[in-house]
Each structure stands twice: as structure tokens, then as C-alpha cells.
Design brief:
Layout lengths: L2 E7 L4 H14 L4 E5 L2 H12 L10 E2 L10 E4 L10 E5 L12 E7 L3 H16 L3 E7 L5 E3 L2
Parallel strand pairs: 1-6, 1-7, 2-4, 2-5, 3-4, 5-6
Antiparallel strand pairs: 7-8
GO molecular function: DNA-directed DNA polymerase activity
Enzyme class: transferase
Organism: Brevundimonas staleyi
């Protein structure tokens, strides 16, 4: 079963956290898929990855575009995995099904949004009941990520 890591955003935004986590995933030698249900949010993430740092970008593509299998990072709303990703990032409350093929799943949610917070709690509870290998990460006052559960 996949490891499922919850990232509780309180001090940072998705725009700040997602590129860092994706960069670490690529440094590990893994490919990544980002599941984003909302098309507008997917386009915003697409733009953010191209402009992540002044001196660099994170190479990526959309799962429904040509050459998706060659991309190190894929943005999608669906369940396809043409690039053989080992890591799945789930944002904006996207569908949690079909996660077994991944080494690690990241559920990133905004703790300042009550709906997102309640959704994450419900997911945690359901996954825990299924015996999933869970970890919960939150930011310290200094901004570092700490495993809290």
C-alpha cells in the first residue's frame, strides 16, 4: 500500500509548497502526477511551475497533451498514469481513488479553509480505517515541515 502524506497548509500557500515538493520528488528520481479537479487551478499550477524560480522551472505537461509519457510531472484531473509516476499529489479535494500504484501520495490542503480541513479529516479517518500508512505534516513557527502524526 502507498504511503499517504497529508500536508496541512497554514503559513504557506499551495503555490509556495507544491513546487518545492515536486522538486524534491524529481531529485529522488521519481516522476510525479498532480491531480487537480478544477481546470482553472490546473492552469494556474501549470503557469506557476514554468515560473517557479527566476533561474529555473519545473518541466511538466498536461496528461491530455502529446508526449505525456515523457514528462517528469503531469497535471491531470483524471486517473491515467502515462508517465509511470511514483508520486501522486492530490490538491483541491480531488478524487482519492486509484492510489495503489504509487509509492507515495501527497494530500495537500489549506487549513484556513474549513471545507478543505473537514475533507482532509474525513480522508484521514477513512484511510486510517483501511490500514493505510499515513503521515501528517504541519509547518512549525519557523516555517519548517514537521511530522506531527
Amino acid at each position: 500500500m502507498s504511503e499517504v502524506w497529508f500536508y496541512h497548509l497554514e503559513r504557506s500557500t499551495l503555490d509556495q509548497v507544491l513546487p518545492e515538493l515536486l522538486d524534491r520528488t524529481l531529485q529522488r528520481g521519481w516522476k510525479a502526477r498532480v491531480r487537480v479537479a478544477d481546470e482553472g487551478a490546473r492552469e494556474a499550477i501549470d503557469e506557476r511551475l514554468w515560473t517557479w524560480r527566476d533561474e529555473s522551472f519545473l518541466a511538466h505537461g498536461m496528461a491530455d497533451q502529446p508526449h505525456a509519457a515523457r514528462q517528469p510531472i503531469l497535471l491531470t484531473a483524471g486517473h491515467e498514469n502515462p508517465n509511470g509516476s511514483q508520486a501522486l499529489f492530490i490538491v483541491d479535494g480531488s478524487d482519492m481513488s486509484l492510489t495503489e500504484e504509487f509509492e507515495r501520495c501527497f494530500i495537500i490542503f489549506d487549513g484556513r479553509d474549513e471545507t478543505a480541513l473537514q475533507g482532509a479529516r474525513a480522508r484521514w479517518k477513512a484511510l486510517k480505517e483501511q490500514g493505510a500508512n499515513l503521515a501528517y505534516w504541519k509547518q512549525s513557527d519557523e516555517g519548517r515541515w514537521e511530522m506531527a502524526a
